[in-house]
């Protein structure tokens, strides 16, 4: 063909030019069918054009074409997509940018990606891609500059092939399950500026040779990687380094002084390791340093004087170490300091007087040191201070009035000091203040009349010397939940307005000089759970309206001058558990309805005019007819027997009935969170009675052996009482989230099977059952100290992950020994997390309370606040630790109403010569034969911290893990044979 005729040819058949481009359209449509997965969603405008149009795909959302209608960029972010990336991607061979971030894609990366030889930027972060990484594919991508697969589920060793890509600048393999060592060959990168490997399962030593990467600027290696050894001193030679993040990866040894050579370093994160020794003074060479985090290590010594040169510092975190000495004066002069957190150390003397003068300070936390002196007056000079925490120190003198003008404050926690003077009246006007904790000081004076701090949720002024009347303007604090004014010198009447506060749940006015009556107008919809008005001079009758408070749990009116008859309705208050009416002036017969019937006499003591319920000398009240009662009783007994018989037959009938229904219903769907080599039928096949391995709060668990030899645990959820579709969607979303969670100490959810009315969750099978069965069963004696301690650590790590490393963070809600499962190596895995909230109303099992959690494990604040948070899990975990130490069940063995926590407290408080060792010996499991006594003391102390009544006093799970894995040195020696 001549040139001319070929032109003519093209003129006649223009679409041939676009032959290739048109196939990009097909490719995209094919890609779409796997990207959206079977459930659809996303990419709505990716449709075949009508009439056909060869450019159509270039206007698909997320698609960019070149002049020839070749796709050069795909950017689909946060759509979300639920499918997989098919091998068709290899056909888009002009692709330069590929961004499929923050979707929910799963499956492996197709090896056909090796055909995308023009690729420069790849971002597949925040998906569920899995499998081993297709390393050979990498070799072909010679143009690659950016490669980001952050937060996926890749496994295996880190691919070494990346070093062959001479243009690669940015490599982020963080947040996956890569294991093994960091390859030495990574030292051969030559253009790399960012290397992010944090959040994997890497081990071994950190290779010093990484220091040879010539232009490295940011290096992230920490979080869940567990290395041997310490920080390579060679890192001090990476002269281009700007950011070094080695947080939380088990580093030991000292901080190398050579790091002081890093002139461009702006961020140094070494927190949560086992670093020891002093801060090397040479670090003053870090002239660009802005953020320094050395918290939660074993560092000691003083802050080096040479640090005065680090004038760029904005963040200093030194908390939870063994630092000592005074806080150097220059800290107050750092012109850019915003955050200073040094809690839990041994710092002494005063805070630098100039602290805050720079006008930049936002957060100051010096809790639990030995700091004394007065509070510097310029802390809020710039009007930016949000959080001021000085609690548990030796501060004295008044609070500077300047702080009362600090409009930015959200939190003031300065309890347990020696402060005096009047509380600045401005505190009660701060618009953003949420928490005011000034208890256990020596404050005097009166509260102001002007109270407008409407964000306040919690005010604690207890145990001071504050006087005057309780201002009625307290009623302005519409968001107040906790008001503690106990143990002061307040007098006058209780303002009625306090009881109008809709959100108030805890009210404590005990130990003051209050007089007059209890206001009668208490709203029925009040949220009060705790009222303590004891030890005042209140008079008059108990207002009946108190009996209408639905959630009231504690009512203490003791030691007042109340009179009149005790309203019998009090006994009918369903949630009331503590009632103290002692030392008043009540008259008439003591009612014996409901709660009042079983209440110990001492809660009525000191009321000389009150007759006991059955006393003969109260003639005005007639005694009940006993015979009448008896016949009633026998009827009730018969009724109960009939009911029990019916109920015991019911499960069998229901089971047969349900199974039949199960088989009939065909619309089953299997959703897998990892590769599964079996079918729905295989799963259903296993739902036989003989396969039942447990029944829990949320349903029945079966063991399933799949045809490919893999064992799974199948949990059939009980039908949820109020399962409307809205609720179901929440449930499904939750399941999706849970399916993405991967942690060594968490039982993996590998998939679920559902149809219209049944949900089956598939979990990894744990062959040694639960810790509860183990320790409370006949095999308990085999579980010796080392194993118990290891299980404690592993379970703590699992919970810690749920609380602190999942986003959004997950509250377990039902931590108990029966939910800690042991695999074939007896490694502990936390099971059944995050689901309890969907089963409140079902009342599924006797061991699960109707509210949240299981009896014996429920944190006390639940009764007051009806809220669960991470700290409620910590309490439950403390109970598990006590089970490990004592070998006893949380409830049942100690008599009515006593649980393991109360039993331990009682037993240890009755010791004639109390000490930690004596306490442990008094409660320890007698089946333990040889164990390190100091180790047991350590575990015991941690357990008791976790079960503190006050949730704020409990450690976080992160702190628990730290305490468990860093026992005091003495806890490791002294093997005591008992
Ligand atoms: C991809 O699109 C998002 C918005 O949808 C945008 O924020 C992001 O910068 C884009 N990325 C690239 C690499 O073009
Ligand atoms: C590819 O991404 C880079 C970096 O985000 C951007 O600068 C470039 O314009 C993108 N190219 C195309 C063709 O979208
Ligand atoms: C999809 O993934 C995002 C994070 O990448 C997550 O927040 C979201 O909950 C997931 N959606 C579902 C339905 O699982």
Task: Give short descriptive properties of this protein.
978 residues, alpha/beta, Leucine-rich repeat, LRR (right-handed beta-alpha superhelix), Phosphorylase Kinase, domain 1, Transferase(Phosphotransferase), domain 1, 23-stranded mixed sheet, 7-stranded parallel sheet, 15 helices, 19% helix, disordered N terminus, disordered C terminus, binds 2-acetamido-2-deoxy-beta-D-glucopyranose
Provide a quick synopsis of the model.
By secondary structure, the chain is an alpha/beta fold. Helices cover 19% and strands 19% of the residues.
CATH H-level name of the domain at 771-972... which superfamily?
Transferase(Phosphotransferase) domain 1
Task: Measure the end-to-end span.
Answer: 101 Å
Helix % is 10-25%
Uncertain residue segments: 1-22, 619-631, 721-726, 839-852, 971-978
Q: What would you say the CATH architecture of the domain at 771-972 is?
A: Orthogonal Bundle
CATH topology-level name of the domain at 771-972: Transferase(Phosphotransferase), domain 1
Small molecules bound: 2-acetamido-2-deoxy-beta-D-glucopyranose
What does this structure look like?
The protein contains 15 helices and 52 strands. By secondary structure, the chain is an alpha/beta fold. Among the domains are: 172 residues, Ribonuclease Inhibitor (Leucine-rich repeat, LRR (right-handed beta-alpha superhelix)); 95 residues, Phosphorylase Kinase, domain 1 (2-Layer Sandwich), CATH 3.30.200.20; 202 residues, Transferase(Phosphotransferase), domain 1 (Orthogonal Bundle), CATH 1.10.510. It has a 23-stranded mixed beta sheet, with no helix packed on it. A 7-stranded parallel beta sheet has the order 31-33-35-37-39-41-42, with no helix packed on it. Helix 9 packs antiparallel against helix 11 and helix 12 packs across helix 13. The longest helix has 39 residues. The chain is globular and about 100 Å long. The N terminus and C terminus are likely disordered. One 2-acetamido-2-deoxy-beta-D-glucopyranose binds next to strand 2.
């Amino acid at each position: 063909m001549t040139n001319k005729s070929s032109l003519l040819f093209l003129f006649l058949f223009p679409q041939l030019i676009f032959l290739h481009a048109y196939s990009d359209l097909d490719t995209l449509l094919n890609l779409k069918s796997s990207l959206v997965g079977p459930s659809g969603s996303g990419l709505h405008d990716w449709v075949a054009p009508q009439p056909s149009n060869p450019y159509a795909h270039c206007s698909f959302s997320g698609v960019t074409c070149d002049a020839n209608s070749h796709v050069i960029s795909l950017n689909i972010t946060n759509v979300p997509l639920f499918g997989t990336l098919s091998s068709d991607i290899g056909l888009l061979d002009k692709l330069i940018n590929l961004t499929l971030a923050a979707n929910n894609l799963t499956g492996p990366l197709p090896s056909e990606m090796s055909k995308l030889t023009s690729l420069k930027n790849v971002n597949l972060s925040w998906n569920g891609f899995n499998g081993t990484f297709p390393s050979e594919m990498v070799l072909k991508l010679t143009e690659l500059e950016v490669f980001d697969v952050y937060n996926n589920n890749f496994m295996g060793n880190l691919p070494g092939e990346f070093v062959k890509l001479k243009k690669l600048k940015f490599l982020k393999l963080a947040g996956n399950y890569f294991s093994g060592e960091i390859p030495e060959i990574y030292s051969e990168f030559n253009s790399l500026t960012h290397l992010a490997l944090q959040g994997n399962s890497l081990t071994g030593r950190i290779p010093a040779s990484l220091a040879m990467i010539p232009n490295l600027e940011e290096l992230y290696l920490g979080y869940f990687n567990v290395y041997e050894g310490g920080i390579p001193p060679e890192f001090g030679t990476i002269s281009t380094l700007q950011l070094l993040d080695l947080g939380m990866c088990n580093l030991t040894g000292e901080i190398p002084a050579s790091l002081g050579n890093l002139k461009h370093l702006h961020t140094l994160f070494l927190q949560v390791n086992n670093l020891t020794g002093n801060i090397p003074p040479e670090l003053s060479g870090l002239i660009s340093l802005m953020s320094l985090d050395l918290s939660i290590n074993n560092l000691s010594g003083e802050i080096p004087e040479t640090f005065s040169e680090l004038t760029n510092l904005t963040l200093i975190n030194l908390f939870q170490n063994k630092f000592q000495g005074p806080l150097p004066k220059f800290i107050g002069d750092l012109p850019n300091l915003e955050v200073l957190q040094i809690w839990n150390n041994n710092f002494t003397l005063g805070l630098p007087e100039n602290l805050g003068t720079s006008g930049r300070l936002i957060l100051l936390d010096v809790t639990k040191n030995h700091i004394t002196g007065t509070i510097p007056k310029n802390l809020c000079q710039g009007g930016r201070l949000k959080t001021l925490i000085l609690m548990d120190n030796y501060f004295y003198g008044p609070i500077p009035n300047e702080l009362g003008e600090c409009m930015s404050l959200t939190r003031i926690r300065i309890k347990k000091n020696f402060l005096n003077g009047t509380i600045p009246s401005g505190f009660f006007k701060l618009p953003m203040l949420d928490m005011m904790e000034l208890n256990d000081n020596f404050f005097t004076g009166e509260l102001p009349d002007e109270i407008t701090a409407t964000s306040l949720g919690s005010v604690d002024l207890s145990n001071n010397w504050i006087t005057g009347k309780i201002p009625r303007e307290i009623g302005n604090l519409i968001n107040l939940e906790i008001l503690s004014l106990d143990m002061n010198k307040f007098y006058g009447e209780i303002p009625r307005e306090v009881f109008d506060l809709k959100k108030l749940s805890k009210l404590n006015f005990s130990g003051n000089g209050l007089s007059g009556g209890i206001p009668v107008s208490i709203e029925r919809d009040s949220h009060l759970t705790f009222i303590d008005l004891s030890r005042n001079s209140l008079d008059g009758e108990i207002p009946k309206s108190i009996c209408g408070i639905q959630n009231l749990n504690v009512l203490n009116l003791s030691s007042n001058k109340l009179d009149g008859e005790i309203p019998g309705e009090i006994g009918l208050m369903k949630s009331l558990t503590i009632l103290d009416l002692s030392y008043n002036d009540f008259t008439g017969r003591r009612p014996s309805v409901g709660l009042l019937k079983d209440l110990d006499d001492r809660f009525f003591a000191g009321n000389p005019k009150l007759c006991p319920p059955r006393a003969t000398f109260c003639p005005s009240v007639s005694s009940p007819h006993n015979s009448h009662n008896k016949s009633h009783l026998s009827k009730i007994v018969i009724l109960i027997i009939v009911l029990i018989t019916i109920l015991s037959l019911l499960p069998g009938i229901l089971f047969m009935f349900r199974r039949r229904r199960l088989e009939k219903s065909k619309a089953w769907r299997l959703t897998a969170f990892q590769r599964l080599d079996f079918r729905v039928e295989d799963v259903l096949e296993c739902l036989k009675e003989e396969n039942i391995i447990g029944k829990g709060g949320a349903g029945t668990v079966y063991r399933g052996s799949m045809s490919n030899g893999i064992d799974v645990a199948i949990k059939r959820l009980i039908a949820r009482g109020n399962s409307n579709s809205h609720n179901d969607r929440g449930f499904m979303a939750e399941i999706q989230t849970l399916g993405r969670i991967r942690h060594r100490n968490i039982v993996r959810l590998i998939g679920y099977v559902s149809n219209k009315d049944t949900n089956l969750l598939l979990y990894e099978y744990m062959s040694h059952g639960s810790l509860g069965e183990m320790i409370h069963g006949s095999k308990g004696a085999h579980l010796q100290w080392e194993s118990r301690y290891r299980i404690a650590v592993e379970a703590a790590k699992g919970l810690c992950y749920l609380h602190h490393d999942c986003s959004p963070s997950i509250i377990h809600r039902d931590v108990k020994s029966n939910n800690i499962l042991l695999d074939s190596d007896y490694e502990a895995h936390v099971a059944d997390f995050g689901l309890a909230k969907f089963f409140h109303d079902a009342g599924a099992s006797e061991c699960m309370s109707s509210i949240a959690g299981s009896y014996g494990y429920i944190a006390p604040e639940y009764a007051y606040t009806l809220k669960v948070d991470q700290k409620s899990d910590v309490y439950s975990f403390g109970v598990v630790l006590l089970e490990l130490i004592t070998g006893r069940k949380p409830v049942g063995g100690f008599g009515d109403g006593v649980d393991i926590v109360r039993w331990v407290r009682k037993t240890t408080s009755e010791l004639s010569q109390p000490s930690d060792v004596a306490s442990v010996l008094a409660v320890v499991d007698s089946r333990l034969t040889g164990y390190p006594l100091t180790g047991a003391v350590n575990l015991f102390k941690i357990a008791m911290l976790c079960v503190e009544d006050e949730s704020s006093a409990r450690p976080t799970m992160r702190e628990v893990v730290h305490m468990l894995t860093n026992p005091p040195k003495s806890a490791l020696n002294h093997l005591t044979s008992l």
